[in-house]
Amino acid sequence: MLDIDKLSVHYGGIHALQGISLGVPKGKIVTLIGANGAGKSTTLKAIIGLVKPSTGNISFDGNSTKSLRTKDLVESGLVLAPEGRRIFPNLSVEENLSLGAFARKDKAEIARDRNKVHELFPRLEERKKQRAGTLSGGEQQMLAVGRALMAKPRLLMLDEPSLGLAPLIVKMIFGIIQTINREGVTVLLVEQNAKAALEIADYAYVLETGRISLAGSGPELLADDKVRKAYLGES
Predict the structure, then answer these.
(1) How many other C-beta atoms can be found within 10 angstroms of the C-beta atom of residue 219?
(2) pTM to 2 decimals?
(3) How far apart are CA 53 and CA 65, in angstroms?
(4) Strand, coil or helix: what is 69?
(5) Tens digits of residue pLDDT in 66-120
């Protein structure tokens, strides 16, 4: 569904991504793990068109994305829930969700998708008139994911959804990711919480200083000694 071939990205003199290649098959959960500064967020920004690759190719559904704007990619079903949530704090919960559907015109389906978001995140329905900036961190993350779902993604990219959240909320968010996937949405997950990410991943990549250093199924990487030592805190 998504294919990245020999992708490189430079920020000035910094070679942030150094010819990485990876694939995200339709219907699967693929995770990208690695330390801070490894290039995980840069990968997602390149995919969605927020940074320009130096070399390499990105294709979605077999078509190159090189000439497409971010808006075009969103309309085609490629959607990013960014790191740090990036909600609109002065708008209400409902207004934030409505903005997620900015590129859509199918009012009846938008209403159905809003109801689905409320089913996934009942807290958002309870707080629909509340200013988003007054929500807790966990509620803001629910809103960020809900807003992304309002764009009707076929491939949903999530950048550090567990960042700064309590363990109980993290468990709930990862459960929701699995539910979204079971309902037919392909997922590309960038996460520092390697254990939680690998436990739900069909396939995973380890990114180190701009290069893919390991790849395998979620269970394979969970059992890998190098991964266990570097990312799971085990000796």
Answers:
(1) 13
(2) 0.93
(3) 11
(4) coil
(5) 889 999 999 999 999 988 788 999 999 999 999 999 888 899 999 999 999 999 9
